[in-house]
Amino acid sequence: MNDFIYYSPTEFVFGRGVEEGVGAKAAARGFKKALLVYGKGSVVRSGLLDRVKASLDAAGVAHVDLAGVRPNPEVASVREGIRMVREQQADLILPVGGGSAIDCAKAVAFGALYDGDVWDFFCGKAKVERALPIFCVLTIPAAGSEASSSCVISNDELHAKRGTNGDAFRPAVAFMNPEITFTLPPFQTAAGVTDMIAHICERWFSGVGPVPVTDNIAAGLLRALIEAAPRVLEDPEDYDARADIMWAGMLAHNDIAGCGRALVQGGRAGGWESHGLEHEMSAFDTSITHGAGLAVIMPAWMRYVWREDPSRFLQFALDVFDIEPIDGSDEAVEDAVTAAIDELQAFFVDMGMPKTMGELGLREEDVDAIVETLRATKGDVFGAFKKISMEDAKAIYLSAFVDPALPALDEDEAEEA
C-alpha cells in the first residue's frame, strides 16, 4: 500500500424526501442567496426544482437561476454563472441535477473567485485553491461529482473537453434521494452505471500492485453495481437497487476505491486512460454520452494493455467475475483475461450500451482529428498502467470500430468488405 491522503468533507443527506430539507440546511449555515444550477427541463417537469425552491423560500434563502446547462457542460454556461454570482452576490452554489449540472456549478464556484478567465483552470494556467460553498441535489447517479474533487468542462470553440481537480470545490452537502431516479430513462441509468464502473477500474488499473483492503472495496462496489443494474432496468422503482446504485456511484469517485494505489502521495490513483480517450470522443461530438463512450473505449483499452501486467487483470477477473485460468500457461492466462473483458463488455451491452465506435456515430476517418485533440490535452504520452503514445491511442480507437465477438477477416475478405 502506497502512502496516501484521503479527504472526504461532504455531508451526505440520504433517503426519501431529503430535498425538502435543503433550505433549512442552507439557512442553518448562514447562507443568504443561492445560485440554482440545472439542466434543460427534467428537474422542472418532475416538480423537483419547485420542491427545492419551496424549501429555500420557507427558510428565507433567496435564489436565482442558471438554467439550461447541457450534457458535457460548456464553458459559456460557466461564464454566465460567474457573471450572475457576482451581480447577484450569491453566497451558495446549488446544482440540482447530475454530473453536468454539478460540474458546471463547481466551475462557477471557483471561477467566481478568480480574476482571470475560468478556462485558465482547464488549460493549466491556474490552480484551484478556493471556491464558494456548494450544496447539490443529485438526480442522476453517474459521475460521482456529488463528492469528488473532479470537474470536467467542454469548450466548443476549441473542440476541447478538459478536467481540473481540487479539494476546495468538493460539495459541502449532498442531498441524495433514490426516489428521484425512478423516472430516469434506461439509457441514462445504464450510462451512469458504466461511468461508475469506469471510475473504479481507472483506479484498479493504476500501475500499482495488490492493495487488499482497497481492492476488496473496489471489487465489492463493482459486484454490487453489476447485481443492481439489471434489477432497476427491469423494475425502475426498485428502491433498494436504486439506493445501491446511487451510493455506489458516490463511493466510486470519492477516492476511497483508490487509497494506497496512487503513485504519488496526495495524487489520484490511476492514469485515467479510458477517460482521457473518451473525453476527446465526446468533445469531437458533444451528442456522445460520456458513459456510452466509455462502454466502447474502456474494453478496447483493456484488450490493448492487459499484457503490461497480466496478474492485475487476473485479479480483476477472479474478484469481479469468479474467472480464473485453468493452469499457468500463457494461453490459459489470455483466455481468462479475455473472458473477463468479454464479460464486462457483455454487461454493458446487456444494459443497452453501444459496443463499437460506429454505434456512437463516429467514423474511422474521424480518428486522426480526435488523436490531435488528445495530443493537445495529454501531450505525446500519458497513462499509468501503460504509457499510451498517440500511435497507441490511434490503434485503440481504430480497434474499437471492430466487434471483438466477430471473427477477424483475412486480407481478401477485408478487401471485399
Automatic annotation (TrEMBL):
One of its GO terms (molecular function) is butanol dehydrogenase (NAD+) activity. Residues 189-400 form the Fe-containing alcohol dehydrogenase-like C-terminal domain. The keyword Isomerase does not apply. Keywords: Oxidoreductase. Residues 9-178 form the Alcohol dehydrogenase iron-type/glycerol dehydrogenase GldA domain. GO terms for cellular component: cytosol. The keyword Oxidoreductase applies. SUPFAM superfamilies: Dehydroquinate synthase-like. Transmembrane segments: none annotated. CDD domains: BDH. It comes from the Bacteria. Pfam families: ADH_Fe_C (PF25137), Fe-ADH (PF00465). This is NADH-dependent alcohol dehydrogenase. It comes from Slackia faecicanis.
